[in-house]
Amino acid sequence: MQNFMSVSLLINCAISACAFLITKQLIPSLRDMFIAANLFGNDLCKRNKPKIPEAMGVVTGCMFLIALFLFIPVPFVFNEKQVNEFPHNQLIELISALLSICCMILLGFADDVLNLRWRHKLLLPTIASLPLLMVYYVNFNRTTIILPIFVRNVLGSSIDIGILYYIYMGMLAVFCTNAINILAGINGLEAGQSLIIAASIIVFNMIEMTHDSNTRMEHAFSLYIIVPYFATSLALFMFNKYPARVFVGDTFCYLSGMTFAVVGILGHFSKTLLLFFIPQIINFLYSIPQLFHFVPCPRHRMPKYNATTDRLEPSKTQFHYKDLNIFGRLCVSIFRLIRIIEWSESDKDGVVITNNFTLINFLLVVFGPQHEQRLTHYLLVVQVLCTLVAFVIRYPLAKYFYEY
Ligand code: UD1
Ligand code: MG
After folding, report:
1. What letter does residue 187 receive in the DSSP assignment?
2. Per-residue pLDDT tens for 112-151?
3. What are the residue boundaries of the structural domains of the chain, listed by start?
């Protein structure tokens, strides 16, 4: 069993390496075609705001899908189990994973071309995750959550939350897709953060496979999906890092988020997955007042480029305090009190100016104006540090809370 899994993984790595090389060749050769099709955006953090081909995630997405299509037969060909009984449930899991990811690539591309509204961005990932949830229901249907030791006297050791667990998994897909998309706007950030999350998932799966033989199959399956994702995204990152020659587009953010949700759900480690999203969770919580329009939210919240210094500065939003609703007033007052926003108020007309509420702008408020490349590095370092924190929570700390 273990042997056939190692062979499958080796073949998967070989296919991924080929996918990486082909994607690396393909991206530059398709640049002009994308620009000719009007699929481009202006790099807003550069002096001359050059035209950069957008939605390149669709290229890596297609290569990722092709790699997975080629791989589908592999885990089933050498499987000794199929002599007695073919593992239909595993095949269905793999195919439903592909279906959800494929749907998300289509929807992401539609977003890049048509600029969808926010309500669609929330609805579409929910719908795309339905095939996956159906397979989870048929194959596994475990909706119990293990409770931490300190509440076990009152609530028992576990609790079955039934349909709520499915709602949680649907929301996980929505969160993962959008969380990456709103921590964006500087070269290399979308692809960089996704690569670090993917690498964390790979390390976690490998640790679990060596420690726990009962769940080895689930983690192998999640590796089968995440390794080709990592390979194709790495090729994209090479062209998206500063100075960007291509933009990843919403296609890539959606494809990444759905891939992470798929491996987390099918690998049964959705809570650990969320630990790898700590910067995205912080950015989301910080963004809430603007996402829900309690505070004015401009079309772009990315930092502002200063052409004189060639550095990025926090971008701003402005409002009259008295115009905000109760939630807006509460949020900005708390943010101001705990000093996580820059606040200036004009005495004359009472206009308040604050930075836009994103983690990127927050780092600029703390560290002062930065060069774009350095800012991306800071954010990626934060992502890596948070992964380390995630592993500490998942292993040493979880032992105290859950007696693993
Ligand atoms: C999300 C953010 C928005 C941010 C944008 C940047 C929210 C609610 N929305 O919007 O604040 O400004 O992502 O991607 O938080 N771009 C660059 N340099 C880069 C990457 C992107 O200049 O390194 C610009 C380009 O003009 C590109 C555009 O951003 O065309 C892409 O924006 P898009 O992905 O359409 O924005 P949203 O995802 O809607
Ligand atoms: Mg985007």
Report:
1. T
2. 999 888 888 888 888 889 999 999 999 888 898 888 888 8
3. 2-276, 291-376
